[in-house]
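so my prof wants the structure for this chain in the tokens format not the other one, which i didnt know existed until like an hour ago. anyway here's the sequence
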Amino acid sequence: MVERLYLAKPRGFCAGVVMAIDAVRTAARRHAAEARPGVTVYHSIVHNRTVVERLQHEEGVAFVESIDEVGAGGSASDTVIFSAHGVAPEVRRQADRAGLTTIDATCPLVTKVHNEARKYAQRGYHILLIGDSMHHQEVVGTRGEAPEHTTVVAVLGDRDGDPELADPETVEVPDPSRVVVLTQTTLSVDDTQRTVALLQRRFPELVVPPADDLCYATKNRQDAVRAIAPRVELFLVVTSPTSSNGMRLLELAQQLSGNARRIDGVGDIEEGWLHGVRNVGVTSAASTPEDLVQAVVARFRDANPALEVVEEGEWEEIEFRAPRPRPPGGGA
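here's what i got, hopefully its the right format
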């Protein structure tokens, strides 16, 4: 019987996710109150199935993978919201050409990386962008800022990753004296640092931007897993499989505890996992709603009313400003 549950702290929604979801709900409710057509989100607003389904069912939000789909299927939607992962400049131009009002819910930490990509490309640098997939929306958006000046590089040791990514041990650049490294914000902190160190050895003049591209929420959630893992026999990570930061938590929990399982929600927990287990760790991705974690807590408490729940660490106190609608072609 499980006697003790360790809850990672922090876990769940980060400031960027809160900002993005609030932006969608606010826009959808404003449109409904004004009897205007509903809003559409380009790509999943965040990488969590439950969040997307709730926005669809509760707010009537549509999700598309192409600007051409906005307003299709009988909808007269005139507003598109860009997801927290960011978009390439071409997507913005497509939205302008289509006459759409846009709301940019890109996480400000992702926007920072976009700004760096533009700056270094304009200065004639080649960009080595460390990412976990050529097809992850954050990588697509960042690379889109300077595609001819960017090579996407795998994380060192990621042998099961995207085969389209360049190998950091063999990647070549046009001019080794003008090369900069940027990173996807949701990667493993340890693995990314190892990859940057390798690239610095290979390219001694490599520029590493002074501000760490890995976001604070990614680092904090990985640190919380490190604090819990030595105490548990099973680690549950509540995340959708499409969440990069969630899957990095799963990998870290498996590495440190030797027994980690990914679940979308409480219904995925299998009784066989619990044989001989007295201590369970629980964390969740930066896009996972907290009520999914609390359902896990309730499941174990129902099985053992004397369950001890241990929660250590600190919550983050960071907020990002809500984005404002932008009419087609520019403006406030």
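also thought this was worth mentioning. DSSP finds nine helices and twelve strands in the chain.
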